[in-house]
Description:
The protein has helices at 2-21, 33-36, 57-65, 78-91, 127-132, 149-156, 173-178, 181-186, 206-215; strands at residues 47-51, 70-74, 94-97, 100-101, 106-113, 139-147, 163-167, 187-195, 219-228, 234-242. It has 250 residues and is α/β, with parallel strands linked by helices. It has two domains: 1-30; 32-247, Rossmann fold, CATH 3.40.50.150.
Amino acid sequence: MFQAREICLSLAKHLKAWAAWAGYHIVRNHNNPEHTLAGLGGLDFRTIIDIGANTGQFARDIRARFPTARIYCFEPVPQAFAMLEAWAAADGRAEAVQLALGDEPGRVEMFVHTNATTSSSLLPTTSRSHELYPTTVKQTTVSVAVQRLDDWARLSGADLARALVKIDVQGYEANVLRGGPNVLAKAKAVIIEVNIEGLYEGQGRFRDLVQLLDAAGLKYAGNLSQACAADGRIVFVDAVFVRPDNEAPQ
């Protein structure tokens, strides 16, 4: 048995070396934050709020992890919402909501990126965004409804106990947080996209997001994933914030 273990370790070492030579990095799944959901996979989430759901990419993944959870998916872009709504209807325990979330209710013009709706935003893109992601150059606009997260929660009567909130709104994250202090105060965890590079005009800064989440009792717990530019600089991260166990709401 000892010899077999040594052979396996030697093989793993050589595989890592070959992968490194080819420009790849091999990581064991149990050490991979994306595989473990940065430690959140073991929590018993009853409700998941997916803000900036696009066509349901995150919702599909999270459904596989939490099969009994109620999922609320927010997406204002009409083309993406149509696909999201179809998935939610088939899922049976998910609800698609055609709204943008922010700190002031009303209607606003949204910048829809024709070649990549995932990067569409309520904020204008910068030249740096166009440089890093050429698919953001071609745009149209569409009028969308905006609501505060707290107002939606109050009107919908959603069960917010043991909730996970995911926010991916292309620079508008601080506005979403300012519109949802009551929801955040009940959440067990938040996954939020943070732009390190200046991709959108007026985008939320990391320190501002930390302060808003800290005010809700949520503490920074690391990154689920990150994206890098060709030179290795980090462009954006998906940061994880959790409520300390002894402060978790019931």
